[in-house]
Design a protein that fits this description.
Pseudouridine synthase; 11% helix
Length: 138
């Protein structure tokens, strides 16, 4: 995979406008992923995020993966205290948008037979933008 870019609608106002989350991911017997505090204990996962827009209830983040681990974005957003909207499994208290607040924005890879770079883009869902719109000022 050449590029994986996502948008995540997360709960709360993210304090840092950008950052990187790095941890070792493991899976419980109930198939829930979690970050291990011990270096080398699990599969290394690195997630970069950048704030697109926010209000005090939700933040919309651009998320890029350096590694592609199972539920990586979901675990890392919960780790920084901002679970993905609608993601009860990883601590979300909202189910605002009627779906998981995670959307693949850009996926690109080298075609296995032609060697051509294939890129697929999808716009940010309007509901994600609506829930993070700044509050109107009167």
């Amino acid at each position: 995979m050449k590029e994986r870019s996502y948008v995540a609608l997360v709960e709360g106002a993210v304090k840092r406008p950008e950052g990187t989350v790095s941890s070792w991911l493991k899976e419980t017997s109930t198939l829930k992923m979690y970050s291990s505090p011990h270096e080398g204990d699990g599969l290394h996962a690195i997630t970069h995020y950048k704030l697109i827009q926010a209000n005090r209830h939700f933040s919309l983040l651009e998320v890029k993966l350096e590694t592609g681990r199972k539920n990586q974005i979901r675990v890392h957003m919960a780790d920084i205290g901002h679970p993905i909207a609608g993601d009860k499994k990883y601590g979300a208290e909202t189910k605002t948008v009627g779906r998981l607040g995670l959307h693949a924005r850009v996926l690109s890879f080298i075609h296995p037979t032609t060697g051509e770079l294939m890129t697929f883009e999808s716009p940010i869902p309007k509901t994600f933008l609506k829930y993070t719109a700044p509050a109107p000022t009167n």
